[in-house]
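re: the backbone from monday

yeah here it is again, tokenized this time
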């Protein structure tokens, strides 16, 4: 049955205002960095709920919203998550990652130790939902990978806009997150995102990012 249609008229701004807002947003987002040194300063649960609500407003295939956000601030759960994540990371750094991957990570200075998983006041575990059962019938979700990725981007941007730091952490495999948090088998761990304020002495690598012209093409490019 077709959905009820309602008017859609986003605010139309003047061109100078458009450019000013775009420039301001770009300048703010260019300061966003992945954070690995968090303060243990509390972050209100209501603020976490708001940024997750912003993420939940993201578009998704057939409006299925194929994601689950699990917000964790229980110290015992954070401890369990850290221990399991570090166990997987030690195995990855020692045996799973090829030399090229380790070389690519070297400038960032990461290793298997993840103290931020206990220090950050919140761990947001995002699950991707590939299918659901409704009234005994299994229904697939559409474009769950793409939809979850868009929602994750909304979440990271929302956190930065309210002054919170984040890190997209992906210990692999991540099945332990489903076991620890009691999620069903149709929900697959997608991202583990520590959230909080940066530590006062927080530093980040001074990395040169790929220039825009290498990521942007106007119309048809040349073959090869």
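seq for it, each position gets an aa:
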């Amino acid at each position: 049955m077709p959905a009820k249609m309602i008017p859609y008229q986003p605010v139309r701004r003047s061109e100078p205002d458009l450019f000013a807002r775009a420039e301001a947003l770009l300048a703010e987002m260019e300061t966003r960095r992945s954070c690995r040194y968090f303060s243990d300063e509390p972050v209100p649960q209501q603020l976490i709920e708001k940024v997750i609500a912003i993420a939940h407003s993201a578009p998704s295939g057939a409006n299925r919203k194929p994601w689950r956000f699990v917000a964790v601030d229980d110290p015992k759960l954070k401890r369990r998550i850290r221990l399991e994540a570090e166990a997987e990371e030690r195995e990855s750094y020692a045996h799973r990652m090829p030399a090229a991957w380790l070389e690519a990570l070297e400038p960032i200075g990461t290793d298997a130790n993840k103290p931020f998983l206990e220090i950050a006041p919140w761990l947001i575990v995002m699950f991707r939902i590939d299918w659901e059962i409704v009234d005994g019938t299994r229904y697939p979700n559409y474009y769950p990978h793409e939809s979850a990725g868009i929602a994750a981007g909304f979440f990271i941007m929302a956190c930065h806009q309210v002054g919170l730091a984040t890190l997209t952490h992906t210990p692999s495999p991540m099945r332990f997150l489903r076991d620890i948090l009691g999620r069903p088998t149709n929900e697959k761990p997608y991202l583990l995102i520590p959230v909080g304020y940066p530590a006062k002495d927080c530093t980040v690598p001074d990395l040169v990012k790929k220039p825009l012209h290498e990521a942007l093409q106007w119309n048809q490019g040349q073959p090869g």
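Residues 34-199 form a domain with the NADH Oxidase fold (CATH 3.40.109.10). The mean pLDDT is 95.
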